[in-house]
Amino acid sequence: MAARSLIVGVAALLLTACGDTNGAAESSEATTAPSASSSATTTSAAPSTAASGPSACADLGGRVGPDKVCTVHTETAGYTIDMSFPSDYPDQRAVADVLTRQRDQFVATVTEPPVSPMPKALDITSTTYRSGSPESGTASLVFQEYVNVGGAHPETYYDAMNYDLAAKAPITFDTLFKAGSDPVAVLDPIVENDLKTRLEGAPVDANPLGAKMYENFALTDDAVIFFIGQGMWTIEAAGAQDVSVPRSQLAAILA
């Protein structure tokens, strides 16, 4: 998470500058807010109930709708927080840990003096992915996090988690690939070429973070999708990126 810490630090400096000038500077860079997706989890307009029992939704004080989507809303004079995620993801502890960390980090940043008078918001939406059978396949949950700490440049990050339904255990970047393999060496040219093709004219240099660049991913029957936060590989104006790598290109190293 080194890249994220650096970006949050820059955002905090921007927040301080805004507090001193009583207004946000005009940005020449594009910013990326969460976009709609046909597979994204959406919040139901139907009545919801308070979450109960051991669940991430209960831990976060959210409400579960009839579609099993948990929504969390917090609003103060200085900021708003909105979260939306499925209440039935198999690893509820991991969901609670990720969202609690993001919430607490955001609140600490936007309440640190001097506090910017500009609007501040954390908006976390989610998308689910599946591979294999419902009983023995995998479940992936990807959080897209739009963060505006009151500066000139809101950011979009990702947090992703994956779960092996048969083994009842999380899947990480390390366990996704065979022991002794070098997935970064395989992935770097594939992802770099994809970014250069889609971001023509933007600077796309060698991967600056190594394996950390690929820690947020989702699994489908046909591909491994890697989610890259804004400013992590290329310029922030390019926005957040997701790169789908066919399983056939990774067959030799997938565990």
TrEMBL record:
Query: Which NCBIfam families would you find in this protein's record?
Result: EstaseRv3036c
- DUF3298 domain location: 175-248
Which InterPro entries does this entry report, sorted A to Z?
DUF3298, Esterase_Immunogenic_RsiV, PdaC/RsiV-like_sf
Leader sequence segment: 1-23
Name the chain's protein: DUF3298 domain-containing protein
Q: From which lineage does this chain's organism come?
A: Bacteria, Bacillati, Actinomycetota, Actinomycetes, Mycobacteriales
Q: Where is region (Disordered) located?
A: 23-54
Keywords (alphabetical) are: Signal
Natural source organism: Mycolicibacterium sediminis
Which positions, given as ranges, span the membrane?
none
Write down the Pfam families for this protein, in alphabetical order. Answer: DUF3298
